[in-house]
Amino acid sequence: MSKAATFLNSQVGRKLATGVTGLGLVLFMIVHLLGNLAYFAGPEALNTYSHTLHQLGPLLWVVRMGLLLFFVYHAWLGISIWLERRKARPDKYEVYASRGGASRQSWSSSSMILTGILLLLFVVTHLNTFAFHDFDKVVYGGVEMHDVHSRLSEVFAQPLYTVYYVVIMVLLGMHMRHGVWSAFQSLGWMSRKTNPVIYGIAFVLALIIAAGFIGLPLSIFFELV
Amino acid sequence: MTIHLKIWRQKDRNTPGKLVDYTLDDVNPDMSFLEMLDWLNERLMNEGKEPVEFDHDCREGICGSCNLVLNGMAHGPMPGTAVCQLHMRKYKDGDTIVVEPWRARAFPHIKDLVVDRSSFDRIMAAGGYISINTGAPADANAIPVNKYDADLAFDYAACIGCGACVAACPNSSASLFTGAKIAQLAHLPQGHPERKKRVVKMVDKMAEEGFGDCSNYAECEAVCPAEISITSIAEMRREYVKALSEIE
Amino acid sequence: MTASNNGVLNSKVPEGNLQDKWDNHKNNLRLVNPANKRKFTILVVGTGLAGASAAASLAELGYNVKAFTILDSARRAHSIAAQGGINAAKNYPNDGDTVWRLFHDTIKGGDYRSREANVFRLAQVSNNIIDQCVAQGVPFAREYGGLLDNRSFGGAQVSRTFYARGQTGQQLLLGAYSAMMRQVGAGKIQMFPRREMLDLVKVDGKAKGIVTRNLTTGEIERYAGDAVLLCTGGYGNVYYLSTMAKNCNATAIWRCHKRGAQFGNPSFTQIHPTCIPVSGKYQSKLTLMSESLRNDGRVWVPKEKGDNRPPNEIPEDERDYYLERRYPSFGNLAPRDVSSRSAKYVCDEGRGVGKTGLAVYMDFADAIKRLGVDAIKAKYGNLFAMYEKITAENPYEVPMRIFPAVHFTMGGLWVDYNLSSTIPGLYVLGEANFADHGGNRLGASALMQGLADGYFVIPYTLSDYLAENLHAEKVGIDHKAFDEVENETMERINNLLSVKGKKTVLDFHRELGQLMWDHVGMSRNKEGLEMVIKKISELREEFWQDVNIPGENSTLNKYLEYGLRVADYMELGELMARDALDREESCGGHFREEHQTEDGEAVRDDEKFCNVSSWEYKGEGKEPVKHVEDLNFEFVTPSQRSYK
């Protein structure tokens, strides 16, 4: 095996890769969230933003492929670590409990595999709902573009979909709550002092991103914009 | 006081085990947990029954022999305490305590509450040392070590090798044990010549022995009787990345 | 009474000036060339400081080493529990320390009952030990300048103790263990965990192998070797309660004794003054509180008998600070044997404190007043926390209760200057031998001795023996000597299992321990010792008729292991009492009530007892025979210890 493959297959390498891909996805979500905010600036702003992104051409595809790669690799690592864990303890405890204290076991960290898989499924439906949708067209200043704004307004007028979306975003927040802190630990960027600080930052970041993503559909549903 | 026990009894690796109920009605609150088990064993022997096997030695919390999971927690409920230093006064009259052995593929079962932790020795043999022969090394004061690093090295060196980190980890990872040794030697100049080789060998050995991956649950730190920080795991990962050139 | 033929033992101490003896000796010891080292197999029994350091050093030299431990890992040996530190004559603090001073303090502390040449060598190699351990990555305490820190310790006027927080033994053992694991990785050491040595195999009078029980499967296993190193520690568990770990035992040395290795000064036991007192019958072992506490703690009991008031309600003038009163110059820092005995006296007078009346107070109130809580916390925080964990009392507010407990055995198998027992090829290292501490061991010197023996003595002296036996015929495990020993061992196990009596091993051990503690403990007299010899032999008889060992031989069976050990304690306990009875003097930890001054201080008899009593086993039911090694003090003059 090559050096890189050996490295990536080691227990340290696997976690490192999980952390790097995870942080990459967090970065993407920040950008995505900022894009979403354009909705509040009105249809023209959002649709123009979306149109500009599509004009990037090959670069867009590079980003898309990169994202896909990160996403799939991140998911594969998570699932394989989870499968390995089952093998590492063939006989289960009759009773198991966390000691608390320094432990980072929580709803968030204990459900990573579940929230992760649900997020994976969500992304498929999400792409179907938005990315691959046959949008209506609008024209601004002589340029024809997709009417993303109306699609959003239409989708988030449906109560069921809105609830589904909000629930998933809560799960995303939970996933990130452990994930962001964990990524720093996995990358070795941790000392006794920074540990609680980063754990706190991870919570705030997860809260902001989840709240941000939830804010838009709720605003639309309750006709606040 | 009265204590109800549910203790894992298993004759050997190939015989299925189960929890067996025992009740002791004359437990003294000043007894240590292990003394309570001695008490139970004496009673069992007087009744012509087989006593419960468990590992123990120094009973001062330093040798790392004792290894019991009490109500799902490695070494029981007290932070920074090996189970031999846990006293019955921490429990209430009438409490029920489930007692199980460490459970992990890399710690094969032997009998009742006793498991085989020799995988830890093999991780150490893979690189948990400084290659220096007995003889005439330089004077002890020839290499100054700044106090910060010396103290940190000690924090990591305090590991007693009990395996609670593995037992408590949902993934059965040995990262805290392995990381502590790597981090200790990484903070001492004496450990530097071999640091790359060391981390690669130990990390590889850890996986080979069948321990799981670390998912940063930090449960290991919470149960560690020596209160070793998971910072050691972060340090191990840094060391591993720096050692890329040594990876084959 | 015991027969005594006053046979002369050859200690093989080399000629020359004290300073030159070890060097001269090394010059004359035969060597084994590297190609031949590979042909030798050394069996190392026990993996504490002595065993681990010997195994690692010998493997590094190229010998094949097989190492055995009763525990599941070599790292758990009881050396790990030593708290205080390790002495070395480095003189880093520039306070005038020298090898001579360390030697002199150690021999004086041992009350002039140790061999000059051995103790001097110990002091000489002490410095190499520190160098070696630092090179291994042992994280000793350091000062801000990055250099090693030293502190003072009981019985010394200089700061020569190196330490690693309160866990020096642990860190030193992990250093030796890591050196050993490196050789395991290199294939030069084969580790055998969970093995208990149950007997020695001799061929033509020489040690050629051991028989062990695999503690997991019960199998009796045979191992052949060119030499056997016993590094199995002390036998304090004869007393049932001690600060020793539960698995520490005397079986290996006792079995070797029965095969012909003489036992030196068996009655020399150290009883440490500052342990946490017994709280009830269920008590399984005792926990030591570091002696360093005596730097700031004041020891006292109420002046009146049966004063049951809580300590803080007893006014100052109704307290008896008995150590300060009796030993004004050393006060609370009087040596271990003296402080322990004083505690026993006040408790015997009925002035002991706590529920059992078997404890004295160690009070930090003055120190807290003088230095502040923070200073005390910084110095002793971990010890105070440990005390509170065990007793549920807060020593910052209530004085600690302490009581003496068996802590170390200075006696052990007799060895010559080369650490060879009276059986050729059987070497004894560390606490298991009798050599270096005489009648009393000074603080921070047990770790020193274990590592000195393993790292810096045995690699030289063993080669001399092996060189002599280069052409000796190799003995394999199919030799009939192994058959015999294995059969005897199996028979002993089967006998024990077949008794199926009514009393547990614990019952017997507790009874034996109580007899030993009461009569062969801190204070001994003829009447008590004669009585106890009789009682122990009765107890032994009862043991073999009424002990109940549960389970079978073929699985892990700790009570079977324990039963075999207690059977040996009973025999050893009797020998300890015989030795104590025979030694008509008071020296170090051995205090004979018949030999004391009017105010209760020990009286040594250098005319008759400036020697080592070395006991030879003569067979079942026969009285052991005492041999004597005279101790010739050429370089120091024995003086009466005074701590007044």
Adjacency order of strands in the biggest sheet of chain B: 2-1-5-3-4
Side by side, the strands of the main sheet of chain A go: 1-2
Assigned CATH class of chain A: Mainly Alpha
Assembly form of the protein: heterotrimer
Question: How far is the N terminus from the C terminus of chain A?
Answer: 56 Å
Kindly report the average pLDDT value of chain A: 94
Low-confidence stretches of chain B: none
The CATH homology group name of the largest domain in chain B: Alpha-helical ferredoxin
- The number of helical runs of chain A is 9
SS summary, helix count of chain B: 8
CATH topology of chain A: 3 helical TM bundles of succinate and fumarate reductases
- As a percent range, the share of strand residues of chain A is under 5%
What are the secondary-structure elements of chain A, in order, as H or E? HHHHHHEEHHH
Shape of chain A: globular
Strand count, sense and barrel status of the largest sheet of chain A are: 2 strands, antiparallel
- In round numbers, the mean pLDDT of chain B is 96
Indicate the CATH topology of the largest domain in chain B: Fumarate Reductase Iron-sulfur Protein, Chain B, domain 2
CATH architecture of the largest domain in chain B: Orthogonal Bundle
Please, could you describe this protein's structure?
The complex is a heterotrimer of chains A (225), B (248) and C (644). With 225 residues, chain A is mainly alpha-helical. Chain A has a single domain, classed as Fumarate reductase/succinate dehydrogenase, transmembrane subunit (3 helical TM bundles of succinate and fumarate reductases). Chain A has helices at residues 3-9, 11-37, 43-54, 58-88, 107-110, 112-131, 148-155, 159-186, 194-221, and strands at residues 137-140, 143-146. The longest helix of chain A has 31 residues, at 58-88. With 248 residues, chain B is an alpha+beta fold. Chain B has 2 domains: 3-111, Beta-grasp domain (Ubiquitin-like (UB roll), Roll); 118-246, Fumarate Reductase Iron-sulfur Protein, Chain B, domain 2 (Orthogonal Bundle). Chain B is 33% helix and 12% strand. Chain B contains 8 helices and 7 strands. In chain B, strand 1 (3-9) and strand 2 (18-24) form a beta hairpin. The N and C termini of chain B lie far apart (60 Å). The mean pLDDT of chain B is 96. Chain C is α/β, with parallel strands linked by helices and 644 residues long. Helix content of chain C is 37%, strand content 15%. Chain C is built from 17 helices and 20 strands. Chain C has helices at residues 18-28, 34-37, 49-61, 99-109, 116-135, 168-185, 251-258, 322-326, 336-348, 365-371, 373-391, 446-468, 480-499, 505-519, 526-546, 558-582, 606-609; strands spanning 3-8, 41-45, 64-68, 86-87, 161-162, 189-192, 195-203, 206-214, 220-224, 227-230, 263-264, 269-275, 298-302, 319-320, 360-363, 400-409, 412-413, 426-428, 611-616, 625-630. Chain C has a 5-stranded mixed beta sheet with strand order 1-20-19-11-17. The model of chain C is unreliable at 1-6 (pLDDT under 50). Chains B and C meet through helix 1, helix 2 and helix 3 of B and helix 3, helix 5, helix 6, helix 11 and helix 12 of C.
